[in-house]
Amino acid sequence: METTEQIKDMVRQKYNEIALQDKDSNQSSCCGSGCCSDEVYNIMSDDYTNLEGYNPDADLGLGCGLPTQFAQIKKGDIVIDLGSGAGNDAFIARAETGDSGKVIGIDFTEAMIEKARANAEKLHFRNVEFRQGDIEKMPVSDNTADVIVSNCVLNLVPNKSGVFQEIFRVLKPGGHFSISDIVLKGDLPKKIQQAAEMYAGCVAGAIQKTEYLDLIETAGFQSIALQKEKPITVPDDILAQYLSAQEITEFKQSGTGISSVTVFAQKPEAAKTCCGQDCCQ
To answer: What does the DSSP assignment read for 28-70?
Structure first.
């Protein structure tokens, strides 16, 4: 059984490698994991290219949704992008928040941070900042962000509960998040759960959808809503690397489902306090 730190080290190493690959290589594998398929398998079927702020150099094809499209970002907002990679979602968020706002990208992979900073420099963006750090312990002060976005990242984190608690901490009262992620219905075969490549490929690290939503509620969020949900189909030639033909058939007949979801939730407004009999604020 791998420890939390072993899982993190594995994911960090894999995504350092991904940072050096081109988009086509990443898109032909399961979330950049290298488990190549004869089918063109891109776990993210959503198209970024028509969104304002899109930059192809920052798009490594690793997402599983379009969280910025649903994030209700306003001009002047401070936005944090968790697992910011080469900067794709951060740059789209910047187009929404404008010059008066700010975007902070957080990633624990050094090569990704370097790539994102180089992209920002090339685009002459002065209000986009990339910080290297663990999203389970963000290098951000309390009550900083108006909006948090993340794209296919939390499924890679062992301590998802801790991440949602951190999101709650760094959001301003009344702030909200829009996060795209991979979730399950039913149990994945143990051979897939234990496969490091599939973990880095955004599948084996996923948890049950009901558990995922429960973690959000337990962290203190309200107005929780599914903004989008779509099924994810793993091709047989990828499954065949881990399962026998009979196991693949049983898996398909089991009712187990893999989905991409985009989830919205809000941190409650600060409680009003009274400073006197007739003076409340």
So the answer is: TSGGGSS---SS---S-----TTSTT--GGG--S--SS-HHHH
Q: What is the pLDDT of residues 117-162, one digit of tens each?
A: 999 999 999 999 999 999 999 999 999 999 999 998 998 888 999 9
Distance, in Å, from the CA atom of 54 to the CA atom of 214, rounded to the nearest integer, reads 33
pTM (whole model) above 0.85: no
Which structural domain range is residue 172 located in? 4-267
User: Does residue 123 sit within a domain?
Assistant: yes
Task: Average the pLDDT over 2-16 and give the result.
Answer: 66
Tokens standing for 152? 């296919």
Quick check: 87 and 55 in contact, CB under 8 A?
yes
For tokens 């002459």, what's the residue? 124
- Other CB atoms within a 10 A radius of the CB of residue 50 amount to 6
Inter-residue contact 173 to 202 (CB < 8 Å): no
CATH number at residue 44: 3.40.50.150
